[in-house]
Amino acid sequence: MALSPSNPKWPALPDYFHDWALVDVETSGLRPGHDRVLSLAVITLDGHGRQTGEFSTLLNPGCDPGPVHIHGLTPARLADAPTFEEIAPRVGALLSSRVLVAHNAQFDYDFLAHEFARVRSWVPVSRRLCTLALNRLVAPTTPDLKLGTLAAHYGVHQERAHDARDDVRVLSGVLRGSLSAAEHLGLPLPLLTCPPRQDYKPYVPKTPCAYRNPGRLRVGGLLTQGMKVAITGDTRMSREELVARSVAAGLNMMTSVSGQTSVVVTNDPGAASGKLRRAAAEGVPLVDEPTYLRLLEDVQPGQAKGTARAGTAEHRRAAKKPERTTTARPAPAPAPAPAPAPSIPVQRATEPTALETRADDRALAGRRILVLGGTHEEAAAARSRVVALGASAAVNLSAKVTDVVVLPGGEADRRMSRIASLGLSLHDGDWLLAPAPAPMSEPVRSTVGNQPDTAEILVRGAVIDLPDADAAWTVAATWGQHTACDVDVVAFALDAHEQVAGDEDFVFYGAPEHPDGTVRLATDGPTEQAVTVDLERLPLEVSQVAVAAAIDGAATFSDVGAVEITVTRGIGAATTARATLDAATTERTMILAEIYRRGDGWRLRAVGQGYDHGLADLARGYGVDIAE
């Protein structure tokens, strides 16, 4: 059944009836709290899609406007523009009591939040809708999900990209087409709650250390520039001054202890702090404050970062990381204090089922198959068989679904009436044992912009090369829209020993961006989160970025079901690869993917390995200092 994008009707479903505030900003850079808004446009719509207001303006940010070649906003053009403080009341009135809509909405929302915070106010928005996230769920057959591509797909004329006023007009048409397509599929909207906050603070980067870590402080030895130093407990000198002196001397000040820590400064070595327990487990030396201050008076020169690195044959050989097999390591239980933090456990192997034991004959190549019903184990086995047969396993109904497998109990799924009205082919579980060579059901799709899905389908443990090592790559995770529990996606920037260098290398909902901006977490909807990694700017000491999902509370992955990951070169780009991953029934945390160095390049591994304990234990296993 085809959906024409020409003049789509505004949806009539009650759940889609909202007052909307469509927003687009042009900025001096990509980092909210660090960069500024240069141009802003807002269009408001009522619940029937009728325009009720419009506002656009240039803004004088009081700083360098950044990439003029992209947005065309020179200092001369912005000199006479108002400041954000001058227009904040009008913008606030347009946003108030409306659902904020933007393409890649977290970007626009975060920039507005910081601009309002600078004028001692807050964004008067309680919910937002990301049209990028909405179209990931709809899955139109387009080459990518960028605003211009979706505009062409939904029949909206784009006049000038990166112009806030034209982009928000285009967004209005894209929203109309996207809502119509979502209603056709019966999808709940991915509205994200974002209660007003006043705690946004300007970006304050961690002072980088210019020197490589020379290792541990030896007994009777001297400090060397680049040593990683952690401080725990009360100090006689103010902590801020002690850190400042250390940084000025060329030391790398850390907020946690790992196997790479050179020394821990403490005036109470018998205290029961997490840092001291970890130091004892790792054999990290301790010094008291007076001793440390004396050592600070004579810090030895260190080796600057970037020397003896890539470009030499010795480095290339040293940098080659051995390929690991997909055989799971044992999953140890969390070690009680004061024992060492556990190594990262992985998913337990399970006995193959009848669906998984047949040879891969690619009989379903090109199809996208949704599995409904069954126990968690039965559904996971069916999805594994789908992938073995060359198809991709969907976790939600979308425009690209071609077939539906109904396991016992699946006939009661709330989506069945919609699936029947769409005319999709229904099969029982036995169909996957010997799929009949029937013609593929036509996916629910629009009549323009049809593009084949060229994404590589990854099984658990599969590895791909990331072709552009100078790019930012995004791993987006999506799970069932009707999932009742909360799932958090997190990331860890790890060294060669699979440990964080400091707590700032743990990116999660409470700290969604690494201090240097190289790893960022975005929440695009209630059941979708994404991690973006800037490979070119990652410190050389980072060998791997691990992306994981953790369930909040007592629920397990048997309650969540499968998690689908998509890998793209940047946000909104064409999907390079995808994988559908299932953890076992009792597990609460799952490692989704690893991005790791391989020689002079980078690779990605689809992992799908889980274990029973929660996020805190996962973080401790990677060396994060989690308070008891």
Overall description:
It is globular and about 80 Å long. The protein has 628 residues and is an alpha/beta fold. The strands form 6 sheets. It has a 6-stranded mixed beta sheet with strand order 4-3-2-5-6-7, sandwiched between helices. The protein has a 6-stranded mixed beta sheet with strand order 17-26-25-19-23-22. A 6-stranded antiparallel beta sheet has the order 18-28-27-24-20-21. Mean pLDDT is 85; it is low at 1-6, 307-359 and 445-450. 22% of the residues lie in helices and 23% in strands. It folds into 4 domains: 2-193, Nucleotidyltransferase, domain 5; 228-296, Rossmann fold (3-Layer(aba) Sandwich), CATH 3.40.50.10190; 368-446, 3-Layer(aba) Sandwich (Rossmann fold), CATH 3.40.50.10190; 456-621, sav2460 like domains (Lipoxygenase-1, Sandwich).
Summarize the structure.
By secondary structure, this protein is an alpha/beta fold. The chain folds into 4 domains: 2-193, Ribonuclease H-like superfamily/Ribonuclease H (Nucleotidyltransferase, domain 5, 2-Layer Sandwich); 228-296, BRCT domain (Rossmann fold); 368-446, 3-Layer(aba) Sandwich (Rossmann fold); 456-621, Lipoxygenase-1, CATH 2.60.60. Helix 5 (131-138) packs parallel to helix 7 (164-185) and helix 6 (147-153) packs across helix 7 (164-185).
Can you tell me the CATH topology of the largest domain?
Answer: Nucleotidyltransferase, domain 5
What's the total number of strands? 28
Beginning-to-end CA distance, first to last residue: 55 Å
Major β-sheet strand ordering: 4-3-2-5-6-7
List low-pLDDT spans.
1-6, 307-359, 445-450
